[in-house]
Amino acid sequence: MAMNEWAFAAEIKSWWDTAFAARPEWKLDRCRVEESVDTGSGVAKRSDLTVRNLEGEIVFAGELRLPDHPRADPWDPENIAGASSKARSLGARWAFTSDANRLLLIDTDIRGPVQDTVALPMDLADITDRTDLDQASTLDAVRDAWIEALDTVVALALGDAVPVEIPPDERFIRSLRGLLRQPVDAIAEALEKARLADPKFEAELVKWMVDEQGWAHVASEWDSEIRRTAALTAYVFVTRLMFYEALRRAEPGLRPLHLHRDQPAEVAAGGLRGYFKDARIKSKDYETLFSWDRACDYALIADEVVPGWARVVERLHNFDLANIDYDVMGRMFERLIEPHERYRYGQHYTVPAVVDLMLSFALQPGEGPIADFACGGGTFLVRAYARFKALHPELTHQELLNRLYGCDISAFAASLATVNLAVRDLVFQANYPRVTTKSFFRVEPGESYMQVPGPDGNLLDVEVPPLRAVTCNPPYVRVQKLSKPQRAEAEAILGRTSPSPPVPAKVSGLANYHIFFWLQAARFLQPDGRLVFITAGEWMDSDYGGVLQQWLLANFRVLAFVESMAEPWFSEARVGTVVTVAERCDDKMARDQNIVRFVTLRRSLVNFYGPTEDPLDHFARVDALRDRILGLAGEAGEGEDLDWRGISQADLIALGMEEADGTGSSIDPESEDRGSASQQDVML
Questions:
Q1: Gap between the Cα atoms of 331 and 333, Å rounded
Q2: Mean pLDDT for the chain?
């Protein structure tokens, strides 16, 4: 017979009772299962586990689910609220909720959004189904984890320890992901059912994944693709719901969202369309955020998804976008997509401290405009907004937005970036972030980039102006893994000569996708504009990177390569990273005389900057590090906080030519054949 919640609670009781007997100094009595609780609703409920002290007072109480329960995630707001409610009814300060894999310790004395009451999250196991607990070896490992967790819980409950502070973005995003599990599961099931029943639906789904999302469809991987589609559409949809609620708080004339659990999906969609239309009309803004698109259709694809969305709407008050900072919003795209998915699709996200340094390099005069053409959740754009605002407090919100341009092929990412900028000043007036859902390789200088409302309500075309800089953390994925249309549109830029600098006619078939972002971004720069990219460092000593090395040396003053030995700059440290700073330059003499600096930091950036709450002071400290790096002189140097070596760009070219000697490949940046280099270690 498979394990159920009651049987698992009985197992925990036996483990903990043994621990209580072995630790008399705790002065705790036996653990009890299914203790009756009066929550004041008139209906008696039961607490799965309660622990009393020797005086009979309940010290902590907890609720259990098993991992295959439809709402198992302990971060689900209803699970946190339910455990808290029962514990308070029993007179206990401490509560917990668990799905057997994770345990959240809750302090019921804390008020505010339910996720803020979580004092400590603990990882216990990694099981997927209750039948796993029927295996003796698995149950033994789970027992050891629960006994170890008990030590921590008791120490906190008895006041012998203090919980470690949980970052607010962790609370926000984990709880939101828990709340979305039910609609995501229902969407995935409905999508799978629809594609199996209707070949036309399946073909349209593939077209949406490939053409609009830039994914490579593989027929043998339908399960993961369906799951990814369900997650993406749910995250896009909930972002719009959260933004509506944030906007409603700023403008009470908007109606509160309401959704009945028993509504048909068609009726629910009609109601939500009405809310979105109302927001567009009353704000005369936010057209892209409140448009009804394929993501919305998939989010409400079947009647079975409606109860999950009704729960989400009921709990939106816990997720106030206007009261969270960029660290939360900028990481939502990162944290809501599972790590293995981000790694598979080359989506590595940049920590804000390095973003600030990159923007300092990019905007050394302190002026714009600036763009991020793989903007993700918008961290580069929001930090650029903060920098401009600190340096130019006289600028209005819309004037600040007018300096920032972004796009992303992911609708979810573009929506997040738009929201991330719009909530800097939530008002019913001009509030038009220049962010759009579009492949960067469909953007052309001098052509319409997107549309925004004009003073008379008509839509106006927006072009990307000549840019002071492009900062970017481009996707890091092999070209071979791209869909055919995605690869074709990237390769279409090869050989273009206008606007300058000319794009190489060919690149290696083994190249990484990020190479094309460099080549395309340079076409939007002012004559002395800068590219400041963070990438994996592989291209600097690989065959496929030769064409990028030559192109940079022939068209830019390469100011610095910066890396860190003190901390990872991508959110997952599976690849080494380097920041490249290059300034557009047509003067060969100036390029040859330029000193290329190779810098390795030995302290974290936060350590370099130091603590300060004044934004202007913070950016001054960031700029001081930038100036120090760009002022490094001499061939080499070592210090406690950084090492460097410098070499003139002409000597770097000569060094590369020497290393390529005998290979049959020239690395001369003036060579006619700039796409055939096969040298290694040209840059290093």
A1: 6
A2: 86
Task: Say how far apart CA 301 and CA 61 lie, in whole Å.
Answer: 39
How would DSSP label each residue in 486-533?
HHHHHHTTTT--SSSSPPPS---TT-BTHHHHHHHHGGGEEEEEEEEE
C-alpha to C-alpha distance for 510 and 518, rounded to whole angstroms: 16
pLDDT at position 679: 28
Question: How far apart, in whole angstroms, are the C-alpha atoms of residue 126 and residue 67?
Answer: 9
Q: pLDDT band for position 213 (50/70/90)?
A: confident
Q: What is the DSSP string of 401-469?
A: HTTEEEEES-HHHHHHHHHHHHGGG--SS----EEEE--GGG--TTSEEEEEE-TTS-EEEEEPPPEEE
Q: For the chain, what are the domain ranges?
A: 5-165, 174-324, 340-660
SS3 labels along 457-472: CCEEEEECCCEEEEEE
CA 121 to CA 156: how far, in whole Å?
A: 12
Q: For residue 594, what is the DSSP state? A: P
How crowded is residue 206: how many other Cβ atoms within 10 Å of its Cβ? 16
Which of 327, 419, 434, 439 lies closest to 374 in space, CA to CA?
439
Lowest mean pLDDT among 47-51, 481-485, 585-589: 481-485
**DSSP state for residue 43 in the 8-state scheme:** S
Q: Hey, what amino acid is at 517?
A: F
pLDDT the model gives residue 458: 79
Q: Which of 210, 201, 173, 206 is nearest to 409 (CA)?
A: 210
CATH class for domain 5-165? alpha beta
Task: Report the alpha-carbon distance of residue 241 to residue 321 in Å, rounded.
Answer: 11
Residues in the chain: 684
221-225 long-range CB contacts below 8 Å, 24 or more apart?
Answer: 222/192, 222/195
218 contact partners, CB below 8 Å, separation of at least 6: 225
Name which CATH class applies to 340-660. Answer: alpha beta
Identify the three-state secondary structure at position 95.
strand
Cβ-based neighbours of 514, under 8 Å, separated by 6 or more: 474, 475, 476, 533, 535, 536, 539
Long-range contacts of 227-231 (CB under 8 A, 24+ apart): 227/184, 227/188, 228/341, 229/187, 229/188, 229/191, 229/205, 229/298, 230/184, 230/185, 230/187, 230/188, 230/191, 230/298, 231/180, 231/184, 231/336, 231/337, 231/338
pLDDT for position 43: 57
Q: What single letter denotes the amino acid at residue 331?
A: R
